[in-house]
Amino acid sequence: MNKTFSLGIGRAKLAGIEAGEGLPVVFLHAGVADKRMWASQIEAVAEEGWQAIAYDRRGYGQTTSPDEVFNHLDDLEALLDARDIHAAVLVGCSMGGGLAIDFALKNPGRVIGLVLVGTSVTGGPYELLDSEQAVVMAEEDAEDRGDRDMLNKVQAHAWLDGPRGPSGRVAGAARELFLDMNSIALNQPELTLEEARPDAWQRVGEVGSPTLLIVGDQDFNYLIQRHEHLSEEMPNAFAVVLEGVAHIPSIERPDLVNPLLLEFLDAVVGGDSDDEDNEDLD
């Protein structure tokens, strides 16, 4: 059963959930989502004997924050410290993956392994295909007009369906969840004082932690290219491309993501997730 928690950092209150016991696995959500994007993975991880933790970053979900100077990296460090977690496996999608990479570069001894899904990389290149331009232009138009409802729908097309696919490709509960998570983010008060993090693109080869790279073949092409670059540059990376899947596979195809995640976790600790065997890691 999931337990909720709240952590005060500065004048912010981070909202989180945790489930299970054992080696800690910390989930970092995408920039168009919140901690709920990991619901299926949290359940699967906890059932297999791990401690699953997820939280909403500032500007997302149930977390509240005034417009004060902050850094997502500092917030993550503070959260781990507050929960007495020395080292963890970090699972991040998109911007959450970029945060995980930055954390691993700054605190290599605190990262047991990384799972990076359609990951961002601080300072990474960005170039759109011609076939991706239309959805991005529609997104910019909705943003310029201040039409948040339309912006949410366009971003669902871009990130859930995939920029080169038909709008509405992913329907049902997954779409409803995406629209709800992203609507909350779009309607949050703007945070203007976030501190920039150092460029990580030129340093990804320094990340020595075991890493599982996942990307959907319906995602933006530049994210697929980043995935390929990381698979070549990161010394202990294993790369998987999911067919027919876009940017948020955790809610689109949890049946594909969960087995990969659990297999990776078993491999990281030699197939044993018992508390006694891993008490030096958490």
Descriptive overview:
With 282 residues, the protein is an alpha/beta fold. The chain has a single domain (3-126, 190-278), classed as Rossmann fold (3-Layer(aba) Sandwich). 39% of the residues lie in helices and 18% in strands. The protein is built from ten helices and eight strands. The protein has helices at 39-47, 72-82, 95-106, 133-144, 148-161, 172-186, 221-233, 249-252, 254-268, 275-278; strands at residues 3-9, 12-19, 24-28, 51-55, 88-93, 111-117, 211-216, 237-242. The protein has an eight-stranded mixed sheet, with helices on both faces. Helix 1 (39-47) crosses helix 9 (254-268). The longest helix has 15 residues, at 172-186. The protein is globular, with a radius of gyration of 18 Å. The chain starts with a strand and ends with a helix. Mean pLDDT is 95; it is low at 271-282.
- CATH architecture field: 3-Layer(aba) Sandwich
Low-confidence runs of at least 5 consecutive residues? 271-282
Residue-averaged pLDDT: 95
- Work out the oligomeric state of the chains in this entry: single chain
Estimate what percentage of residues fall within beta strands. 15-25%
Overall SS class: alpha/beta
Helix content: 25-40%
List the total number of helices: 10
Reading side by side through the largest sheet, how are the strands ordered? Answer: 1-2-4-3-5-6-7-8
Distance between the termini: 20 Å
* Main sheet: strands, sense, barrel: 8 strands, mixed
How many extended strands? 8
